[in-house]
């Protein structure tokens, strides 16, 4: 099975204190430490496991500036067979639809059976996977936390739904799946693996190689524009109820009554 995994280079929230810039148009990006998006890392691990079980190859693709190459190489060191870098100054300022359009063009250049994305990236919109599937006219499932090969071009997939329940479905290949964290435990990437892929060639594709018009991506093609960043103001905090279990229940009931939650 030929698998393409879409990954993104994002600020590492465990290594950075994220602040908004002075004019509120973006976060302060100077001196930020970047890494691969957490959800995408789980998607790559799942792709590697599927390949190891059923054969085929895993390709990782990422859209971004020159520094994005480090994320692609990391996922190759993790076990992906190939990497592709989508880089073009025209891509800057693309919204989710523009990113999906570039990824669609890349998918159509290959012969992929399955495309995996993370459930969401750093802007939290969680829209690229669904848009990509719609553009390709492929089946799609989001928040997938279980994948099982069923044969005959069908995958059995699991999704966590409301109430902590698990939903299982069958989906036919080719398809696009957005992967939820917890589906697996991503493997450790060591120095030996990083050195092994350090000299491998990573093709770079821009709008010309992808065959897409420049006006379809970037700020020109964006239908959604971010106009403001702000940090929410802190509230008064939580009220801690103390006492025995019965006393806490009585206090909680009184609070709910006073707030109009129950009568």
Written overview of the protein:
With about 260 residues, this protein is an alpha/beta fold. The chain has a single domain (about 1-220), classed as Rossmann fold, CATH 3.40.50. It has helices at about 40-55, 70-80, 95-110, 130-135, 190-195, 205-210, 220, 245-260, and strands spanning about 1-5, 10, 35, 55-65, 80-85, 115-120, 140-150, 155-160, 165-170, 175-180, 205. The strands form two sheets. The protein has a nine-stranded mixed β-sheet with strand order 9-8-7-10-6-1-4-5-11, sandwiched between helices. Strands 2-3 form a two-stranded antiparallel ribbon. The chain is globular.
State the low-pLDDT regions, or none. none
Taking all residues together, what is the mean pLDDT?
A: 92
- Give the CA-CA distance, first to last residue: 58 Å
Shape: globular
Largest sheet: 9 strands, mixed
Element pattern in H and E: EEEHEHEHEHEEEEHEHHH
- The CATH homologous superfamily name equals HUPs
The number of domains: 1
Query: Percent of residues in beta strands?
Result: 15-25%
The helix content is 25-40%
What name does the CATH topology carry?
Answer: Rossmann fold
CATH first level: Alpha Beta
Rg, rounded, reads: 22 Å
Characteristic key phrases:
263 residues, alpha/beta, Rossmann fold, globular
List the helices and strands and how they pair.
Layout (H helix, E strand, L loop, with lengths): L1 E6 L1 E3 L22 E3 L1 H17 L2 E7 L5 H10 L3 E5 L9 H14 L4 E5 L9 H9 L3 E12 L2 E7 L5 E7 L2 E5 L11 H7 L6 E2 L1 H4 L7 H4 L23 H14 L5
Parallel strand pairs: 1-4, 1-6, 4-5, 5-11, 6-10, 7-10
Antiparallel strand pairs: 2-3, 7-8, 8-9
